[in-house]
Amino acid sequence: MGKITERTDNSKLADFRVHNRGIEKAILGGMRGMAMGHEKKVSGIYEKNRSGGYEQNISEGYEKNVLRPKNVWEEFFADKRSGGHRSSAEEFLSMEAREKLFHLNGGKTILDFGCGAGELLVYYAPEYEKTIGVDFSPSMLEEAGKRIRERNCKNTILILADDKTVWDRLDSPLDRITAAGVFQYLTYQEIDDFIFNASTYLNKDGKIVLFDMLDPRLYPLWKIGLFSQDNSCKKIISKAICGVRNTISSSLKRRPRDILGYSHYPGKIKKIANKNGFEMICVQSMYYEYKYHAIIFRS
User: Fold this and answer.
1) Which residues form the Methyltransferase domain (predicted)?
2) What's residue 205's pLDDT?
3) Residue 149 and residue 246 in one domain
4) Is the dihedral of CA 230, 235, 241, 243 positive or negative?
5) What confidence score (pLDDT) does residue 63 get?
6) 237 and 270 share a domain?
């Protein structure tokens, strides 16, 4: 009887191990899907040459599929009136702004690209002689305008533009060009173009500071609740499975896998910075455990 019982226990153990391996594969599959972001789908729509022209390097049909996400972002932000901060409380926004001002580290003029509703812009304004807020969402800029008037930020102007049209609206070089939680909506190629264009409007000792970039190594873990204080194995597994389903569904609908945008590897952002004649250091975000800051400067 003892031998029969032993075989039964071993069989159950084997079944349990097989079941666990299945769950592990589901989690890893979902994490890879979320981490890859646009790696294979949206890199290199056009290869921009430095003389100002563009060379098409993909088929017309593929181009239409790749460009689709941008319309999704425009639609998503069309009527938004608040930024994607962890909290809208002024106390939190003040702390977040202080962290960012520390990394901006001086300068007299600053452009905040993707300023949204101006939550951080109004904290930058007292520290600079001139501040420029840029966003492509009219509703966001309307809210930013209200904040600027309430804070009496007379040194601040707002510009309605995107990452391609903003440069035609500038008339003088800047000490700091920054963006917070914005570049997750741009592809690697678009980031390359932005840094290249920004370099021509940056003073000699100026900096480009990209705040709160989604880290593909940490974001999938945060998304399944691994950093949550009240997480459990059951919740983590459930979120991982949902993530796999959403990834498959989004791919079939030719929509972005995640409405929060794309994650970008710090190493690849550094290569883009180096390619454009800059150095880069990467630091962890203080208030978003799955994000990092890219501080870009000339050596």
Assistant:
1) 110-206
2) 94
3) no
4) negative
5) 35
6) no
Phi-psi map region of 157: left, alpha, beta (phi>0 left; psi -120 to 50 alpha): beta
pLDDT at site 181: 87
- The boundaries of the domain holding residue 242 are 2-36+221-251
Helix, strand, coil percentages (3-state) for the chain, rounded to 5, are: 50, 20, 35
Q: How far apart, in whole angstroms, are the C-alpha atoms of residue 147 and residue 120? A: 10
Q: Residue 51: is its pLDDT beyond 50?
A: no
Does 241 share its domain with 277? no
Question: With contact defined as beta carbons under 8 Å apart, do 224 and 240 qualify?
Answer: yes
Are 191 and 126 in the same domain?
yes
Q: Is the pLDDT of residue 6 over 50?
A: no
- In the predicted structure, residue 64 carries a pLDDT above the cut 80: no
Burial bucket for residue 14 (CB in 10 Å: 0-12, 13-18, 19+): exposed
CA separation for the pair 45, 190 (Å, rounded): 9
Residue at 167 is within a domain = yes
Is residue 49 a part of any domain in this protein? no
- Give the CA radius of gyration of the chain: 22
pLDDT (tens digit, 9 = 90+) per residue, 231-252?
666 665 555 566 556 555 555 6
pLDDT at residue 61 in the model:
36
CA distances from 263 to 186, 220, 291 (A): 10, 10, 9
